[in-house]
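Inverse folding, one chain.
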């Protein structure tokens, strides 16, 4: 276990930091500095929580010969008494499928015949309905069906006919004899005034080959994998779900990660807490380490970095933090003190207020 640095070692290290700022002082003198310990405690716990699903009847596609994985599943007689070893790593999820002893069987599929059933799309006819006639895509039964009759079947007066042929600039004049009124050069060239035309898919027959079964009338039954057999059993599932919890901590400088941390691993609720914990740490960890319902395995990592906080009148604008590195040296980092941060905020607010005042004065 790494040795916690003494108060004197900490103060000497901070003195060297101050000397780099051209501040000469002896922090070991009475009243020259105040030192307190604010050690950083971290704790992470991974639990494996066991969840037992309800027993149910289960069906698998195909015969037993195709369901070897099911046949190889562990069997049980009493689900509550069946023991499953949790994963060695509690952070890993584990699912175990079980089969009740004596329930594994193979039965005929009741929804098909030899793995095939009537096609639902055509109701076993092999063909599906199709409209024998479709609207003309050129005139869609509108005025352009026949300019003589405006698509209505009733002839118009000569005056009405004179300006009745709508045209877009640059389009070629369409000309066809109307099937209904037999007038020349007045009908849609696609349907010849009939406003509809024969469906190209069924050629006017009213039905087409079913696209689902290709006219075969029957299709493979997917629910039994086209075998006509099913594998059935009664079973249940036991799952080990990982759960991760951490101790809430204050945000600290990233440089602390380089420190010489005390570390310990616990794998049982009965394990003793590590000796390096300080006063009050056990109370902080108690809620986190309490055993959870259905907990079957755990892995706990506890880490502690002794961290000293030093303040000195020789540099009232800063607070110094010191900790030991794995090399044995003591690392010192500094941050602005609360008083200094408050002063900077007030200064910034004053600058903003002055800028606003100047701007308003200029705009008047």
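Residues assigned per position:
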């Amino acid at each position: 276990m790494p040795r916690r640095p003494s108060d004197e070692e900490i103060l000497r290290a901070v003195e060297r930091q101050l000397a780099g700022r051209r501040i000469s002082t002896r922090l070991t003198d009475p009243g020259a500095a105040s030192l307190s310990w604010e050690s950083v405690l971290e704790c992470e716990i991974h639990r494996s929580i066991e969840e037992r699903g309800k027993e149910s009847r289960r069906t698998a596609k195909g015969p037993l010969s195709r369901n070897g994985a099911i046949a190889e599943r562990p069997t049980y007689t009493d689900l509550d008494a069946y023991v499953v070893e949790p994963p060695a790593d509690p952070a890993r999820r584990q699912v175990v499928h079980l089969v009740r002893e004596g329930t594994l069987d193979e039965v005929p599929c009741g929804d098909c015949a030899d793995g095939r059933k009537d096609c639902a799309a055509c109701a076993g006819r092999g063909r599906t309905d199709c409209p024998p006639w479709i609207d003309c895509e050129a005139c869609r039964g509108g005025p352009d069906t026949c300019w003589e009759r405006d698509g209505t079947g009733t002839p118009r007066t000569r005056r009405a006919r004179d300006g009745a042929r709508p045209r877009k600039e640059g389009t070629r004049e369409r000309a066809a004899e109307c099937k209904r009124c037999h007038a020349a050069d007045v009908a849609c060239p696609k349907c010849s005034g009939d406003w509809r035309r024969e469906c190209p898919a069924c050629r006017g027959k009213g039905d087409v080959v079913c696209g689902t079964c290709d006219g075969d009338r029957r299709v493979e039954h997917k629910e039994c994998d086209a075998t006509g057999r099913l594998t059935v059993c009664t079973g249940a599932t036991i799952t080990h779900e990982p759960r991760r919890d951490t101790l809430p901590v204050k945000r600290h400088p990233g440089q602390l990660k380089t420190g010489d941390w005390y570390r310990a691993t616990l794998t049982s609720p009965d394990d003793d807490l590590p000796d390096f914990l300080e006063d009050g740490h056990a109370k902080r960890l108690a809620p986190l380490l309490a055993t959870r319902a259905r907990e079957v395995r755990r892995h706990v990592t506890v880490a502690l970095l002794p961290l000293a906080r030093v303040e000195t009148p020789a540099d009232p604008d800063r607070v110094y933090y010191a900790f030991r590195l794995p090399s044995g040296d003591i690392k010192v980092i500094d941050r602005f003190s609360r008083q200094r941060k408050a002063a900077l905020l007030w200064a910034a607010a004053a600058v903003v207020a002055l800028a606003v005042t100047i701007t308003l004065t200029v705009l008047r």
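Confidence is low (pLDDT under 50) at residues 157-164, 166-173. The helical segments are 7-20, 68-71, 158-162, 281-289, 338-363.
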